[in-house]
Amino acid sequence: MGGRSRLVNRAILRTLSQHSSSSSSSPSTLPASGSGANAVREEVKSLGRAGGAILGSAVDESGARKAQWGAGWVFAAAGLVGMSGGAVGSLHTQAEEEPKASIVPEVARPASKPRVVFVLGGPGSGKGTQCAKIVDSYGFVHLSAGDLLRAEIKSGSPDGTMIQNMIKEGKIVPSSVTINLLKKAMAESNTDKFLIDGFPRNEENRADFEKVTGILPEFILFFDCPETELERRLLGRNEGRVDDNIETIRKRFKVFIESSLPVIDHYEKIGKARKIDATKSREEVFNAIDPLFRPFLETDLQRATEVLLKGIDSGDLSTYERFCDPGMTAFEPEASGHLVKGLDFHRFYFNKKVAGGNEAENFRQSTVTSPVVTLLDSNVGLVTYTRLVQDRSSSEVKAYNETRLWQRKKSALVVYKKYLLLHCKSLALDLGMYQSVTMTYNGGYSGTNDWSTHGKGNVQMKEEEKRAARECTQITRRPPKVKSFQFFVPTQHLMGVGFEPSEDSLAKPTNMLPAFRGLRDIQLSHVHQRNQNKTRFWRTHSSPTTCTSRHLDRH
Ligand SMILES: Nc1ncnc2c1ncn2[C@@H]1O[C@H](COP(=O)(O)OP(=O)(O)OP(=O)(O)O)[C@@H](O)[C@H]1O
Ligand SMILES: Nc1ccn([C@H]2C[C@H](O)[C@@H](COP(=O)(O)O)O2)c(=O)n1
Questions:
Q1: Is residue 507 part of a domain?
Q2: CA of residue 176 to ligand 1 center, whole Å
């Protein structure tokens, strides 16, 4: 069996074994009912919406939601949401259940939009070889268009003979056939990160894929290698492929130059091509690729943290336990400086919550601010952030500086892309460190929140605040409808952007948005100082929000 076939088969086997192992392990299955689990689902669902992409969804008998894209599913056509380094975490995780969802123990499902990297280069340039390494290090699913087509021939499909003839001639199979195979494979996979190898091979492939799926690649890898070296490699590959003979090889080179290079040029023009010198050794090539994939892991770790916090907020102990390595260590505020090992201690938080009243009253809301992800290697990473926690039942706000150490374990039951929590440190903060901030924005930013019921909806706006809010209406066509809230931003976050906290500017916490979500793109980088009356404005670059901060003496 050829190297590539082995790859695909490995991916299929892995998927199958996940299905079979999960079907026999009911304890790790997301509870079909239970308000905690439902709260996580609902919350994560709404996060997906907030991210701008709406998936069709259905609830199966077990309460698990099924994504509806791919074969028979609907590919969302909204723009991709990039990872934000802003003040608030980019909470766009979409908890999706895969088709066999009720038996799969994953609580956090792929983001609403698959993240795709196309892998292109001449025949024999090492695409399949490098994809195997990327899969190992970064947890992508590798889909080789050529392998899918060869599998289609073997399956005895009605298209088989046509595909076989085209491959023998080194020609490119019609897009409709290849795209259908890709869509099906993506829909059957339980991930949202795909390496699509050997596709798009021509302009028709590219345009049709975009049209049908609405997906633009994050970037493309282009393995650059001269024909002499390609020919040497292909003739030495020895995998029994019908097209690895000198006659077909030459035809494939011609097709690559005439049809595939223009596609690479297209991505070059839009800044998405990453050219790799493929003449180097396998290891050197991988070293050149490696840094390009690290941001995917950073996003995954940030999402894992956000989904974990949703589980904690909803009091869902079973979700929490599935996220944690059984030997997890922690420094928790209530442990008075002691190192806590194992999960027993953590149950205290969940019990405390239940003892305190009914679930609806106790439902908490965590807001992640200033997240920083540091990768220690391709499997281990630290997520640090300041977490603001508000109980739904009161306006009390608590704040913690938290660090979570995650490790991706191949053997782990899928929780969030196989990440397990190894260590956490939570340090309670004095809320005196927080600066009260009033935010104004124009209505319509978030369709899921009724902002008027939160925060200080009736604050009297000053003229300049209204003007600042109006400025941001350029971004949305909806009429300005200014509202205002009070929330808290860590004082240290405001430093370095021209804000000087002083004694009298430290506000007493009185209220906080139950959801910071709408602010996640905020970047406190553009400071307007209209200092005369001690009002400071700053605007985000990327979202229709305007923030004003006021000193206490104006409240
Ligand atoms: N950097 C490298 N140096 C030398 N040989 C390599 C290198 N990378 C891959 N090879 C070898 O070259 C051959 C072709 O590699 P591979 O199958 O990964 O290419 P490919 O781009 O996927 O080809 P195709 O498009 O035909 O499927 C294989 O035998 C592989 O072991
Ligand atoms: N998008 C694609 C990808 C592949 N094919 C056909 C034609 C190729 O010569 C053959 C082998 O592909 P490889 O394994 O070298 O990537 O499969 C196609 O028609 N369209």
A1: no
A2: 27
Of the three residues 257, 279, 301, the one that is the final residue of a domain is 279
Of the CA atoms within 13 Å of residue 343, those in its CB half-sphere come to 16
Residue 403 falls in which region: left (phi positive, over 0), alpha (psi -120 to 50) or beta:
beta
**Tell me, what amino acid is at 505?**
S
Q: Do 233 and 323 sit in the same domain of this protein?
A: no
Torsion of Cα atoms, 480 then 482 then 487 then 492, to 10°: 60
Q: What is the pLDDT along the chain (555 residues), one digit of tens a residue?
A: 334 433 333 332 232 233 233 222 221 111 222 333 443 333 333 333 222 221 222 222 222 222 222 222 222 222 212 222 222 222 122 222 222 322 333 444 444 589 999 999 999 999 999 999 999 888 899 999 999 999 999 999 999 999 999 999 999 999 999 999 999 999 998 788 999 999 999 999 999 999 999 999 999 999 999 999 999 999 999 999 999 999 999 999 999 999 999 999 999 999 999 999 999 999 999 999 999 999 999 999 999 998 899 888 888 888 889 899 999 999 988 888 889 999 998 888 787 655 545 554 456 778 787 788 999 988 899 999 888 777 666 556 677 889 999 998 877 777 777 889 999 999 887 665 444 444 433 333 322 222 222 233 333 344 544 454 444 333 232 333 333 333 444 443 333 333 333 333 333 222 222 223 333 323 222 222 333 333 333 333 223 233 333 332 222
| Residue owning the nearest CA to atom 17 of ligand 2 | 146
Domain extent, residue 179, equals 115-279
Q: Give yes or no: residues 201 and 341 share one domain.
A: no
**Domain match, 184 and 264 both:** yes
Ligand 1 pocket: which of 222, 233, 256 to mutate (most atoms <8 Å of CB)? 233
- Ligand 1 pocket: which of 129, 167, 235 to mutate (most atoms within 8 A of CB): 129
The residue written with tokens 């100082």 in the block is 529
Structural domain count of the chain: 2
Residue 123 alpha carbon to ligand 1 centre in Å:
8
Whole-structure pTM value: 0.65
Q: What angle do CA 105, 106, 107 make, to 5 degrees?
A: 110
Q: Where do we find the tokens 């200080």?
A: 456
Query: CA triplet 499, 505, 508: central angle to 5 degrees?
Result: 130
